[in-house]
Specification:
By secondary structure, this protein is mainly α. It is 80% helix and 0% strand. The protein has 19 helices and no strands.
Length: 386
């Protein structure tokens, strides 16, 4: 029970700082006089770190063990929050990179921990921790602006407060550190395990699904508040709308992994979630201010649950813990590098055109490869073993 609680609390600390940054992005750019390119880079950095730093996770496991590697990730989130109190562009970007690296380690290792310690309840535990991840991001989107106003330190104080949950999670996780590093013959494989999957079509299909769904989600997470403020809504309402997109997904994200794990294939879920996202994006494109709560609800129901579904597919498409960490590392490392193009592309298109139309059309077009890779990855097969 304590292990499951620890997993949930770790997941709850992987996204809040990123969601919080999106809600105060206008304040950051105004205070630090950031250009549109710099603001786009700020929203892209965490996702890029998810991809580039994913291979760090197996290396940390071999040296420290999974439990200590995850503790280090929590400590990094807390350290980033302390840096943000400095309020300068240098500490802003440094803290953002630190949070991105920490989240990259957590992204890769949590599915491995589920496979290792909850093999018969993988769907249930995956649902719990991915729900915590989504819930925490939604909460951060809703309360960051009011928190910043209440604390009186502006955006540095509003961001720094998200280091406190990381410290609390570290306290709860501390008993797991007694397990120490796992013996070498049981330690998950490093980059060599990923190399063998580069010739596996199924591994690439899972990677494609991870990349395209993450691109859609993180582009939305980074810029949705700005889309609504440009449409005439105030910053607080825009932040609430982003939180609504997260909160409506929570019940579905909680039960979907368990439901998906009961059946050999998950193709129907891929079609349904992609269709919901497409409908919400179409509404955002045609009339963003006409029914904003409807559009964000549809997008949340599509984008939110597909991430836990993808993590569940990673577990279901692998037979062993070693296979899971290899597939998780490949899918999340390459997938999040693909995803990093989303926030940057939307920012550049907004700067070049002066509107969000081209960016939203791009997100709609990229749902096609998401659907195709998802349908292939959701078939009842396994990646090739070593």
């Amino acid at each position: 029970m304590l292990l499951a609680l620890g997993i949930v609390l770790i997941a709850a600390n992987l996204r809040p700082a990123i969601a919080a940054t999106a809600t105060v992005l206008d304040s950051i750019t105004g205070d630090l006089h950031l250009s549109g390119v710099a603001a786009g880079a700020l929203t892209t950095l965490p996702v890029l770190c998810f991809g580039l730093c994913g291979p760090v996770a197996p290396l940390l496991v071999r040296r420290l063990g999974i439990e200590r590697a995850l503790a280090l990730a929590l400590a990094a989130v807390a350290a980033a929050a302390a840096l943000w109190l400095g309020g300068s562009a240098t500490v802003l970007f440094a803290g953002t990179v630190l949070v991105g690296v920490a989240a990259a380690v957590g992204n890769v290792l949590l599915p491995v921990l589920v496979r290792r310690d909850f093999p018969d309840r993988a769907g249930l535990v995956s649902g719990l921790y991915t729900t915590a991840l989504a819930c925490a991001a939604a909460l951060a989107a809703a309360v960051t602006v009011p928190l910043g106003d209440a604390i009186g330190r502006g955006w540095p104080g509003a961001l720094a407060v998200w280091g406190l949950p990381a410290l609390a999670a570290l306290v709860v996780w501390a008993p797991q550190l007694r397990r120490g590093a796992r013996p070498p013959d049981q330690a998950p494989s490093g980059p060599g395990g990923v190399a063998r999957l580069l010739r596996d079509p199924l591994a690439w299909q899972v990677t494609g699904l991870m990349g395209f769904q993450a691109l859609s989600y993180h582009a939305t997470l980074a810029w949705l508040p700005s889309v609504f403020t440009d449409a005439g809504l105030d910053r607080a309402t825009a932040g609430i709308l982003l939180s609504v997109a997260g909160f409506v997904a929570i019940p579905v994200s909680l039960v979907l992994p368990a439901l998906a794990a009961r059946r050999p294939g998950q193709r129907g879920w891929i079609v349904l979630l992609t269709a919901l996202t497409a409908t919400g994006l179409l509404g955002l494109l045609v009339a963003p201010a006409a029914a904003p709560y409807l559009w964000v609800s549809l997008m949340g129901l599509g984008q939110g649950p597909i991430f836990p579904l993808t993590l569940t597919i990673i577990v279901l498409r692998s037979r062993t813990t070693e296979d899971t960490i290899a597939l998780s590392t490949m899918a999340q490392s390459i997938g999040f590098v693909i995803a990093a193009a989303g926030p940057l592309a939307l920012g550049l298109l907004r700067t070049a055109s002066g509107t969000w139309t081209a960016g939203i059309v791009l997100l709609l077009a990229l749902l096609v490869p998401q659907l195709l890779t998802g349908l292939a990855a959701a078939r009842d097969r396994h990646i090739a073993g070593p």
